[in-house]
Amino acid sequence: MIFDIQFFDPQPVGFQGFVCEVSGACVSPDECLACALNGAPGCEYGSPAIIHGITTNMRAPGFSTRMAQGDSPVDFGFSATELLTCPRKYHLAQMHPWWDKPSQLYWAFRGTVMHSSAEAYAAVDPLAVAEVRLFAHFSLRGHRVAVHGAPDLIRFNPQRSGWEIIDYKTIHAIGDLHRHTCRYSGQVIAEMPFPLRGKSITCLWCGERHTSEGVHIEKIPFQPRDSHVQQLNIYAALIEANARWLADRVNAQLQNAGSALTVPPDAPVVGAELHYMSMKQLQRAPVEIAPQEERQALIVEHLERILQDDLPPILTDPGQVWQCNYCALHKVCAQAHGGKVGKAALLAQMKAAQTFDPEENLKALGF
Question: 288 in a domain, yes or no?
Answer without folding.
Answer: no
